[in-house]
Amino acid sequence: MSPDDYAKWPIDFxxxxxxxxTAWLAVFHGGISPDIDGPYTSTHYFRTRVGCTxxxxxxxxxxxxxxxxLRGYTFDSPVVLMRTLWIEGYxxxxxxxxxxxxxxRETLLAHPEMRIIISYWDRPFFREYLxxxxxxxxxxxxxxxxxVLAPQIxxxxxxxxxxxxxxxxxxxxxxxxxxxxQRGVLQETQPQPQREIVVIRRGGKRRVINHAEVMxxxxxxxxDTYPVVEFTSLSLIxxxxxxxxxxxxxxxxxxGLTNILYTQPGxxxxxxxxxxPNACYASLAANLGLPYYGFRVPGANHENSMTVDVDKVxxxxxxxxxxxxxx
Length: 327
Prior knowledge:
Elements: H1 3-6, E1 11-18, E2 22-33, E3 44-47, E4 56-59, E5 72-74, E6 79-82, H2 90-101, H3 105-110, E7 115-119, H4 124-132, E8 139-142, E9 147-156, H5 166-183, E10 196-200, H6 211-222, E11 228-231, H7 236-244, E12 246-252, E13 269-273, H8 280-288, E14 292-296, H9 310-323
Parallel strand pairs: 5-9, 6-7, 6-9, 7-8, 10-11, 10-12, 12-13, 13-14
Antiparallel strand pairs: 1-2, 2-9, 3-4
Helix pairs in contact: 2-4, 2-5, 6-9
């Protein structure tokens, strides 16, 4: 669909750049956001996510902007809409949503009266990311079922489910690093021999049942050269510094691998993959230029725990260390 097609409807279509995905902003005048899907005007409706598909517009003539449906929040200034499915998940927040804010960050900083509408979830990492981007004072958490009325509703182009946009991610990372450095909390990276093997410990779904055995084997095999440390749940700043210190990242498929975004160039990633592999972290590693090593764990799926072959963990970690030279 071309900008001319969008121009037929009561929005402004503003292309931002020609990157790997088409980056654009849709600006709805007199728009209403009724639910998680997205905003509408009196005649057209916009959905920001339908399963794992990209955004689209379609006719919605039965919706009329009448006072009877304006229950909720009314804003006098423009708002940026960040209501998408699974936004409460760390992976989806960091890779699919925060980067979208980079398209409007300068505008938001220049207009502090503007607000960012985010799905209402009590997630500490929401605040941590927005704080480092300088946007936390403008964020408003509103339940997805509550209407939002504003003179303009701005929708940055959605990132397709499970995907990532390297240029936006790197721009976001640079801003975060700069904010941490300004606060004096960005640790300098260590020389390679002092770097760590970071092993992700996951709780809940897809946890590694024999995690302790994996840690013991890695320390026995590589501990004389590299400290073997465990990553569980840390603040964002501590997480970033830990991954910046990593010589190699080892762990099961899950949100913790999102943090490979903060590793140094050339840092290899070893993933314990589900039996039905999801390549989202392989894609992220490739887009970041990180060597990727993944092996399937028989019987592991999205819901259950897994027992990994310790010999395979040692084999693939050793290979990753031999074949790469982290900077």
